[in-house]
Amino acid sequence: MPIGIALTLIIGAYLGYNLFEGDKSLFLGGETSHGHYQIELECQACHTTPFASQEKMQQACESCHAEELDRVNDSHPKKVFLDPRNADLLATLDARLCVSCHREHKPEITRDFGVTLAADFCFHCHQDIKEERPSHAEFEFKTCATSGCHNFHDNSMLYEKFIAKHLDEPAIKDPARLPEKTGLKRWLKKNKKKLPLDVAEPQMDSFSFEATNQATVDLSRVVEDWKSSIHARTDANCTSCHTQNVSQNHNSFTIASVAPVCESCHKRQHKAFLESKHGMRLALELSPMSTDKARLEVDKSHSKSLDCNSCHNPHSLNVVEAAMDSCLGCHQDTHSQNYKNSKHYQLWAQEILGEAPSGSGVSCATCHLPKVKKGRRVTVIHNQNLNLRPNTKMLRSVCMNCHGLEFSVSALADEALIENNFIGIPTKKHQTFELVKQRMKSRQ
Protein backbone atom coordinates (compact mmCIF):
# COMPACT_ATOMS: atom_id res chain seq x y z
CA MET A 1 0.00 0.00 0.00
CA PRO A 2 2.73 2.59 0.86
CA ILE A 3 4.35 1.84 -2.52
CA GLY A 4 1.05 2.47 -4.30
CA ILE A 5 0.53 5.75 -2.47
CA ALA A 6 4.09 6.82 -3.26
CA LEU A 7 3.66 6.01 -6.95
CA THR A 8 0.37 7.90 -7.03
CA LEU A 9 1.99 10.95 -5.46
CA ILE A 10 4.95 10.80 -7.84
CA ILE A 11 2.73 10.47 -10.91
CA GLY A 12 0.43 13.21 -9.61
CA ALA A 13 3.37 15.52 -9.00
CA TYR A 14 4.75 14.79 -12.46
CA LEU A 15 1.42 15.48 -14.14
CA GLY A 16 0.84 18.56 -12.00
CA TYR A 17 4.22 19.99 -12.92
CA ASN A 18 3.60 19.37 -16.62
CA LEU A 19 0.21 21.08 -16.37
CA PHE A 20 1.12 24.13 -14.32
CA GLU A 21 4.84 24.65 -14.98
CA GLY A 22 5.65 22.48 -18.00
CA ASP A 23 4.56 22.57 -21.64
CA LYS A 24 1.24 20.71 -21.04
CA SER A 25 2.19 18.17 -23.73
CA LEU A 26 0.99 15.24 -21.60
CA PHE A 27 -2.54 16.65 -21.72
CA LEU A 28 -2.74 17.08 -25.48
CA GLY A 29 -5.86 15.22 -26.59
CA GLY A 30 -4.45 14.20 -29.97
CA GLU A 31 -2.72 15.65 -33.00
CA THR A 32 -4.03 19.05 -34.07
CA SER A 33 -4.74 20.34 -37.58
CA HIS A 34 -2.39 22.29 -39.83
CA GLY A 35 -4.12 25.48 -38.73
CA HIS A 36 -3.52 25.15 -35.00
CA TYR A 37 -0.53 22.89 -34.39
CA GLN A 38 1.75 25.85 -33.71
CA ILE A 39 -0.34 26.87 -30.70
CA GLU A 40 -1.60 23.45 -29.62
CA LEU A 41 0.10 23.67 -26.22
CA GLU A 42 -1.41 27.08 -25.50
CA CYS A 43 -4.62 25.37 -24.38
CA GLN A 44 -6.43 28.48 -23.15
CA ALA A 45 -6.20 30.06 -26.61
CA CYS A 46 -9.12 27.86 -27.67
CA HIS A 47 -10.49 26.36 -24.48
CA THR A 48 -10.31 29.71 -22.61
CA THR A 49 -10.90 27.94 -19.27
CA PRO A 50 -10.97 24.30 -18.13
CA PHE A 51 -14.26 22.68 -19.23
CA ALA A 52 -15.25 25.79 -21.21
CA SER A 53 -18.77 25.86 -22.62
CA GLN A 54 -19.49 25.66 -26.34
CA GLU A 55 -20.33 29.37 -26.33
CA LYS A 56 -16.95 30.27 -24.83
CA MET A 57 -15.10 28.12 -27.35
CA GLN A 58 -17.12 29.66 -30.17
CA GLN A 59 -16.04 33.09 -28.98
CA ALA A 60 -12.44 31.89 -29.08
CA CYS A 61 -12.87 30.77 -32.71
CA GLU A 62 -14.46 34.07 -33.67
CA SER A 63 -11.75 36.10 -31.96
CA CYS A 64 -9.38 34.91 -34.70
CA HIS A 65 -11.66 34.14 -37.65
CA ALA A 66 -14.74 36.41 -37.48
CA GLU A 67 -13.07 39.36 -39.19
CA GLU A 68 -12.11 37.26 -42.19
CA LEU A 69 -15.60 35.74 -42.48
CA ASP A 70 -17.12 39.21 -42.49
CA ARG A 71 -14.63 40.37 -45.12
CA VAL A 72 -15.58 37.64 -47.57
CA ASN A 73 -19.32 37.91 -46.85
CA ASP A 74 -19.64 34.41 -45.34
CA SER A 75 -21.94 32.24 -47.46
CA HIS A 76 -23.21 30.39 -44.38
CA PRO A 77 -23.37 33.05 -41.64
CA LYS A 78 -24.72 32.25 -38.21
CA LYS A 79 -27.85 34.35 -38.81
CA VAL A 80 -29.03 31.89 -41.48
CA PHE A 81 -29.19 29.13 -38.89
CA LEU A 82 -30.79 31.35 -36.28
CA ASP A 83 -33.76 31.82 -38.60
CA PRO A 84 -36.68 29.74 -37.18
CA ARG A 85 -37.47 28.54 -40.70
CA ASN A 86 -34.16 26.66 -40.71
CA ALA A 87 -34.49 25.17 -37.24
CA ASP A 88 -34.92 21.66 -38.63
CA LEU A 89 -31.50 21.85 -40.28
CA LEU A 90 -29.77 22.27 -36.93
CA ALA A 91 -30.90 18.83 -35.84
CA THR A 92 -28.58 17.33 -38.46
CA LEU A 93 -25.77 19.88 -38.48
CA ASP A 94 -25.50 22.73 -36.00
CA ALA A 95 -23.66 25.12 -38.30
CA ARG A 96 -23.87 27.92 -35.75
CA LEU A 97 -20.80 26.44 -34.08
CA CYS A 98 -17.39 26.14 -35.74
CA VAL A 99 -16.67 22.88 -33.90
CA SER A 100 -19.58 21.18 -35.64
CA CYS A 101 -17.40 21.02 -38.75
CA HIS A 102 -13.92 21.68 -37.38
CA ARG A 103 -13.06 19.43 -34.41
CA GLU A 104 -9.50 19.49 -33.19
CA HIS A 105 -7.47 16.51 -31.93
CA LYS A 106 -9.18 14.17 -34.44
CA PRO A 107 -6.46 13.48 -37.03
CA GLU A 108 -8.14 10.28 -38.19
CA ILE A 109 -11.13 12.22 -39.59
CA THR A 110 -9.52 15.58 -40.40
CA ARG A 111 -9.56 16.51 -44.10
CA ASP A 112 -8.58 19.61 -46.07
CA PHE A 113 -9.32 22.94 -44.40
CA GLY A 114 -9.45 21.21 -41.03
CA VAL A 115 -12.92 19.80 -41.80
CA THR A 116 -13.91 16.76 -39.74
CA LEU A 117 -17.16 15.88 -41.52
CA ALA A 118 -17.64 13.43 -44.37
CA ALA A 119 -16.94 14.91 -47.81
CA ASP A 120 -20.63 14.79 -48.77
CA PHE A 121 -21.90 16.83 -45.79
CA CYS A 122 -23.61 19.32 -48.15
CA PHE A 123 -26.28 16.64 -48.68
CA HIS A 124 -27.83 17.33 -45.28
CA CYS A 125 -29.23 20.67 -46.41
CA HIS A 126 -29.09 20.53 -50.21
CA GLN A 127 -30.55 17.12 -51.03
CA ASP A 128 -33.03 18.73 -53.47
CA ILE A 129 -30.34 20.36 -55.61
CA LYS A 130 -30.81 17.90 -58.48
CA GLU A 131 -34.44 18.97 -58.82
CA GLU A 132 -33.61 22.67 -58.47
CA ARG A 133 -30.60 22.49 -60.79
CA PRO A 134 -30.91 19.60 -63.29
CA SER A 135 -27.43 20.52 -64.55
CA HIS A 136 -26.07 19.15 -61.25
CA ALA A 137 -27.77 15.75 -61.55
CA GLU A 138 -24.55 13.95 -62.52
CA PHE A 139 -22.49 15.35 -59.66
CA GLU A 140 -21.92 13.58 -56.36
CA PHE A 141 -22.20 15.57 -53.15
CA LYS A 142 -18.59 14.86 -52.27
CA THR A 143 -17.53 16.96 -55.28
CA CYS A 144 -19.22 20.17 -54.10
CA ALA A 145 -16.01 21.62 -52.66
CA THR A 146 -13.93 20.88 -55.75
CA SER A 147 -11.77 23.91 -56.49
CA GLY A 148 -13.73 26.32 -58.66
CA CYS A 149 -17.16 24.98 -57.66
CA HIS A 150 -18.39 25.87 -54.16
CA ASN A 151 -16.82 26.92 -50.89
CA PHE A 152 -18.68 26.75 -47.60
CA HIS A 153 -17.61 30.22 -46.45
CA ASP A 154 -16.04 32.24 -49.25
CA ASN A 155 -17.79 32.22 -52.62
CA SER A 156 -17.03 35.86 -53.37
CA MET A 157 -15.34 34.96 -56.68
CA LEU A 158 -17.48 31.97 -57.62
CA TYR A 159 -21.00 33.32 -57.64
CA GLU A 160 -22.86 33.18 -60.93
CA LYS A 161 -23.04 36.91 -61.64
CA PHE A 162 -19.29 37.35 -61.18
CA ILE A 163 -18.49 34.41 -63.46
CA ALA A 164 -20.94 35.62 -66.12
CA LYS A 165 -19.25 39.02 -66.09
CA HIS A 166 -15.88 37.44 -66.88
CA LEU A 167 -16.85 34.82 -69.46
CA ASP A 168 -14.68 34.44 -72.56
CA GLU A 169 -11.74 36.41 -71.21
CA PRO A 170 -8.36 35.65 -72.83
CA ALA A 171 -6.02 33.28 -71.03
CA ILE A 172 -3.40 36.02 -70.78
CA LYS A 173 -4.45 39.65 -70.61
CA ASP A 174 -2.77 42.44 -72.53
CA PRO A 175 -1.22 44.13 -70.73
CA ALA A 176 -0.63 41.66 -67.91
CA ARG A 177 0.42 43.90 -65.05
CA LEU A 178 0.42 43.92 -61.27
CA PRO A 179 -0.48 47.08 -59.34
CA GLU A 180 2.42 49.12 -57.98
CA LYS A 181 2.76 49.85 -54.28
CA THR A 182 1.81 53.37 -53.27
CA GLY A 183 3.34 53.61 -49.78
CA LEU A 184 6.46 55.55 -50.76
CA LYS A 185 4.57 57.84 -53.11
CA ARG A 186 2.08 58.69 -50.37
CA TRP A 187 4.86 59.38 -47.86
CA LEU A 188 6.74 61.63 -50.27
CA LYS A 189 3.55 63.53 -51.04
CA LYS A 190 2.96 64.19 -47.34
CA ASN A 191 6.61 65.05 -46.66
CA LYS A 192 7.62 67.16 -49.65
CA LYS A 193 10.29 69.06 -47.74
CA LYS A 194 12.01 65.97 -46.38
CA LEU A 195 15.28 65.12 -48.11
CA PRO A 196 16.89 61.67 -48.06
CA LEU A 197 19.29 61.20 -45.17
CA ASP A 198 22.92 60.81 -46.19
CA VAL A 199 25.75 58.75 -44.81
CA ALA A 200 26.61 61.42 -42.23
CA GLU A 201 23.19 61.15 -40.65
CA PRO A 202 22.65 57.61 -39.39
CA GLN A 203 23.33 58.80 -35.80
CA MET A 204 25.94 56.13 -35.25
CA ASP A 205 27.58 58.32 -32.64
CA SER A 206 24.57 57.82 -30.37
CA PHE A 207 25.66 54.25 -29.70
CA SER A 208 28.18 52.52 -27.57
CA PHE A 209 29.25 49.52 -29.61
CA GLU A 210 31.78 48.08 -27.19
CA ALA A 211 29.55 45.04 -26.75
CA THR A 212 29.12 44.49 -30.47
CA ASN A 213 30.72 41.39 -31.89
CA GLN A 214 32.68 42.83 -34.80
CA ALA A 215 33.09 39.36 -36.27
CA THR A 216 29.36 39.18 -36.98
CA VAL A 217 28.44 42.85 -37.43
CA ASP A 218 30.21 44.80 -40.19
CA LEU A 219 29.22 48.35 -39.27
CA SER A 220 30.52 49.85 -42.50
CA ARG A 221 28.36 47.42 -44.48
CA VAL A 222 25.37 48.21 -42.28
CA VAL A 223 25.75 51.93 -42.97
CA GLU A 224 26.26 51.32 -46.69
CA ASP A 225 23.12 49.17 -46.87
CA TRP A 226 21.13 51.73 -44.91
CA LYS A 227 22.33 54.61 -47.09
CA SER A 228 20.65 53.20 -50.20
CA SER A 229 17.54 51.91 -48.41
CA ILE A 230 14.01 53.22 -48.27
CA HIS A 231 14.57 53.93 -44.58
CA ALA A 232 17.16 56.57 -45.42
CA ARG A 233 14.79 57.95 -48.05
CA THR A 234 11.97 58.27 -45.51
CA ASP A 235 13.88 59.86 -42.62
CA ALA A 236 14.46 56.68 -40.56
CA ASN A 237 17.95 56.36 -39.09
CA CYS A 238 19.59 54.01 -36.58
CA THR A 239 17.88 55.44 -33.53
CA SER A 240 14.48 55.05 -35.18
CA CYS A 241 14.82 51.32 -34.52
CA HIS A 242 17.72 50.91 -32.10
CA THR A 243 16.46 52.90 -29.17
CA GLN A 244 18.92 54.03 -26.50
CA ASN A 245 17.97 51.31 -24.03
CA VAL A 246 19.43 48.65 -26.32
CA SER A 247 22.34 50.67 -27.66
CA GLN A 248 24.50 49.91 -24.64
CA ASN A 249 24.37 46.23 -25.49
CA HIS A 250 23.82 45.70 -29.18
CA ASN A 251 23.42 41.97 -28.67
CA SER A 252 20.29 42.60 -26.59
CA PHE A 253 18.43 43.65 -29.73
CA THR A 254 17.05 40.15 -30.07
CA ILE A 255 14.46 38.47 -32.25
CA ALA A 256 11.82 38.97 -29.57
CA SER A 257 12.10 42.73 -29.80
CA VAL A 258 12.10 43.10 -33.58
CA ALA A 259 8.37 42.89 -34.34
CA PRO A 260 7.26 45.64 -31.92
CA VAL A 261 9.92 47.96 -33.34
CA CYS A 262 8.70 47.36 -36.89
CA GLU A 263 5.10 47.76 -35.77
CA SER A 264 5.74 51.35 -34.67
CA CYS A 265 5.76 52.32 -38.37
CA HIS A 266 4.24 49.30 -40.12
CA LYS A 267 1.03 48.67 -38.18
CA ARG A 268 -1.01 47.15 -41.01
CA GLN A 269 1.80 44.85 -42.03
CA HIS A 270 2.44 43.81 -38.44
CA LYS A 271 -1.24 43.02 -37.81
CA ALA A 272 -1.40 40.86 -40.93
CA PHE A 273 1.87 39.12 -40.02
CA LEU A 274 0.48 38.12 -36.62
CA GLU A 275 -2.54 36.61 -38.38
CA SER A 276 -0.30 34.48 -40.60
CA LYS A 277 1.28 31.08 -40.07
CA HIS A 278 4.61 32.88 -39.85
CA GLY A 279 3.60 35.10 -36.95
CA MET A 280 0.64 33.50 -35.17
CA ARG A 281 2.73 32.37 -32.21
CA LEU A 282 3.88 35.93 -31.58
CA ALA A 283 0.23 37.00 -31.53
CA LEU A 284 -0.18 34.88 -28.38
CA GLU A 285 3.10 36.17 -26.93
CA LEU A 286 4.79 32.82 -27.47
CA SER A 287 8.29 32.31 -28.83
CA PRO A 288 8.52 32.78 -32.61
CA MET A 289 7.74 29.91 -34.94
CA SER A 290 10.91 28.21 -36.16
CA THR A 291 11.68 26.04 -39.16
CA ASP A 292 12.53 22.99 -37.06
CA LYS A 293 8.92 22.89 -35.80
CA ALA A 294 7.31 23.16 -39.24
CA ARG A 295 5.16 20.40 -40.70
CA LEU A 296 5.74 21.68 -44.23
CA GLU A 297 8.77 20.68 -46.27
CA VAL A 298 11.29 23.31 -45.21
CA ASP A 299 15.03 23.41 -44.68
CA LYS A 300 15.45 22.18 -41.11
CA SER A 301 19.23 22.06 -41.19
CA HIS A 302 19.18 25.24 -39.15
CA SER A 303 16.54 26.34 -36.68
CA LYS A 304 15.46 29.67 -38.12
CA SER A 305 13.04 31.76 -36.09
CA LEU A 306 10.36 33.62 -38.01
CA ASP A 307 10.09 37.34 -37.53
CA CYS A 308 10.19 40.43 -39.73
CA ASN A 309 13.96 40.04 -40.16
CA SER A 310 13.57 36.47 -41.38
CA CYS A 311 12.50 37.83 -44.75
CA HIS A 312 13.60 41.46 -44.65
CA ASN A 313 17.18 42.58 -44.13
CA PRO A 314 16.48 45.50 -41.76
CA HIS A 315 19.30 47.61 -43.18
CA SER A 316 19.13 47.11 -46.95
CA LEU A 317 15.37 46.41 -47.06
CA ASN A 318 15.84 44.62 -50.36
CA VAL A 319 12.28 43.74 -51.35
CA VAL A 320 13.53 41.81 -54.39
CA GLU A 321 15.37 39.45 -52.06
CA ALA A 322 12.36 39.23 -49.75
CA ALA A 323 10.05 38.42 -52.66
CA MET A 324 11.84 35.22 -53.68
CA ASP A 325 15.19 34.37 -52.07
CA SER A 326 13.82 34.60 -48.54
CA CYS A 327 11.02 32.19 -49.44
CA LEU A 328 13.21 29.63 -51.20
CA GLY A 329 15.72 29.84 -48.38
CA CYS A 330 13.25 27.88 -46.25
CA HIS A 331 10.63 26.20 -48.42
CA GLN A 332 11.79 22.92 -49.97
CA ASP A 333 8.52 21.46 -51.29
CA THR A 334 8.14 20.49 -54.95
CA HIS A 335 5.99 23.51 -55.81
CA SER A 336 8.57 25.94 -54.42
CA GLN A 337 11.57 24.17 -55.92
CA ASN A 338 9.94 24.17 -59.37
CA TYR A 339 9.50 27.94 -59.34
CA LYS A 340 12.79 28.71 -61.09
CA ASN A 341 11.76 26.44 -63.97
CA SER A 342 8.53 28.35 -64.54
CA LYS A 343 7.51 31.09 -66.94
CA HIS A 344 6.64 33.18 -63.91
CA TYR A 345 10.28 33.15 -62.81
CA GLN A 346 11.49 34.04 -66.31
CA LEU A 347 9.25 37.11 -66.27
CA TRP A 348 10.45 38.03 -62.77
CA ALA A 349 14.12 37.72 -63.76
CA GLN A 350 13.53 39.87 -66.83
CA GLU A 351 11.82 42.55 -64.76
CA ILE A 352 14.64 42.61 -62.20
CA LEU A 353 17.21 42.99 -64.99
CA GLY A 354 15.22 45.87 -66.46
CA GLU A 355 14.37 43.86 -69.57
CA ALA A 356 10.62 43.84 -68.88
CA PRO A 357 8.16 46.47 -67.59
CA SER A 358 7.58 47.00 -63.87
CA GLY A 359 4.81 44.75 -62.60
CA SER A 360 5.19 42.14 -65.33
CA GLY A 361 7.20 39.63 -63.29
CA VAL A 362 5.81 37.05 -60.88
CA SER A 363 7.73 36.19 -57.70
CA CYS A 364 6.74 33.99 -54.76
CA ALA A 365 5.42 37.09 -53.00
CA THR A 366 3.32 38.08 -56.01
CA CYS A 367 0.95 35.22 -55.26
CA HIS A 368 1.45 34.59 -51.56
CA LEU A 369 1.92 38.19 -50.34
CA PRO A 370 -0.14 39.98 -52.98
CA LYS A 371 -0.41 43.69 -53.64
CA VAL A 372 -4.02 44.64 -53.03
CA LYS A 373 -5.65 47.84 -54.24
CA LYS A 374 -8.22 49.53 -52.05
CA GLY A 375 -9.26 52.93 -53.33
CA ARG A 376 -6.07 54.73 -54.32
CA ARG A 377 -3.92 52.74 -51.91
CA VAL A 378 -1.99 49.63 -52.92
CA THR A 379 -0.48 47.66 -50.05
CA VAL A 380 1.21 44.30 -49.61
CA ILE A 381 -0.76 41.73 -47.62
CA HIS A 382 1.64 40.20 -45.08
CA ASN A 383 -0.64 37.32 -44.08
CA GLN A 384 0.80 34.73 -46.45
CA ASN A 385 -1.93 32.15 -45.81
CA LEU A 386 -4.85 34.55 -46.30
CA ASN A 387 -5.52 33.38 -49.86
CA LEU A 388 -4.27 29.79 -49.68
CA ARG A 389 -7.33 27.87 -48.48
CA PRO A 390 -9.40 27.59 -50.58
CA ASN A 391 -7.07 28.65 -53.35
CA THR A 392 -9.83 30.42 -55.29
CA LYS A 393 -9.22 33.28 -52.85
CA MET A 394 -6.26 34.08 -55.10
CA LEU A 395 -8.41 34.86 -58.12
CA ARG A 396 -9.18 38.54 -57.66
CA SER A 397 -6.02 39.67 -55.83
CA VAL A 398 -3.52 37.63 -57.85
CA CYS A 399 -4.47 35.59 -60.91
CA MET A 400 -6.85 38.01 -62.60
CA ASN A 401 -4.25 40.74 -62.81
CA CYS A 402 -2.71 38.77 -65.66
CA HIS A 403 -5.11 35.97 -66.62
CA GLY A 404 -8.75 35.55 -67.55
CA LEU A 405 -11.08 34.06 -64.94
CA GLU A 406 -11.71 30.74 -66.72
CA PHE A 407 -8.01 30.09 -67.27
CA SER A 408 -7.30 31.01 -63.64
CA VAL A 409 -9.99 28.76 -62.15
CA SER A 410 -8.93 25.87 -64.38
CA ALA A 411 -5.30 26.30 -63.29
CA LEU A 412 -6.16 26.39 -59.60
CA ALA A 413 -8.22 23.21 -59.97
CA ASP A 414 -5.32 21.36 -61.63
CA GLU A 415 -3.36 19.79 -58.77
CA ALA A 416 -0.55 18.54 -61.00
CA LEU A 417 -0.12 22.01 -62.47
CA ILE A 418 0.09 23.53 -58.99
CA GLU A 419 2.66 20.92 -57.95
CA ASN A 420 4.98 21.78 -60.86
CA ASN A 421 4.46 25.52 -60.23
CA PHE A 422 2.36 26.23 -63.31
CA ILE A 423 4.82 24.98 -65.88
CA GLY A 424 2.40 24.56 -68.78
CA ILE A 425 -1.32 25.19 -69.06
CA PRO A 426 -4.41 23.57 -67.43
CA THR A 427 -5.11 20.11 -68.81
CA LYS A 428 -8.84 20.75 -69.12
CA LYS A 429 -11.39 23.53 -68.90
CA HIS A 430 -13.46 23.91 -65.76
CA GLN A 431 -17.10 22.80 -66.01
CA THR A 432 -18.33 25.78 -63.99
CA PHE A 433 -18.13 28.09 -66.99
CA GLU A 434 -20.10 25.84 -69.31
CA LEU A 435 -22.79 25.46 -66.64
CA VAL A 436 -23.08 29.23 -66.29
CA LYS A 437 -23.29 29.64 -70.07
CA GLN A 438 -26.08 27.06 -70.25
CA ARG A 439 -27.98 28.73 -67.43
CA MET A 440 -27.71 32.14 -69.08
CA LYS A 441 -28.90 30.65 -72.37
CA SER A 442 -31.93 29.05 -70.69
CA ARG A 443 -33.03 32.45 -69.43
CA GLN A 444 -33.06 34.05 -72.88
From TrEMBL:
Domain Tetrahaem cytochrome: 36-127, 231-332
Location of the protein in the cell: Cell envelope
Superkingdom, natural source: Bacteria
Keyword annotations of the record: Calcium, Electron transport, Heme, Iron, Metal-binding, Oxidoreductase, Signal, Transport
The keyword Nucleotidyltransferase appears for this protein: no
Main location group: other
One Gene Ontology cellular component annotation held by this UniProt entry: outer membrane-bounded periplasmic space
EC identifiers of the protein: 1.7.2.2
Biological process annotations from GO: anaerobic electron transport chain
Any one GO MF annotation of this record: metal ion binding
SUPFAM superfamilies: Multiheme cytochromes (SSF48695)
Signal peptide positions (record): none
Pfam name, any one: Cytochrom_c3_2
Chain ranges passing through the membrane: none
Cofactor needs: heme c
Catalytic activity: 6 Fe(III)-[cytochrome c] + NH4(+) + 2 H2O = 6 Fe(II)-[cytochrome c] + nitrite + 8 H(+)
Family note: Belongs to the cytochrome c-552 family.
Protein name stated in the entry: nitrite reductase (cytochrome; ammonia-forming)
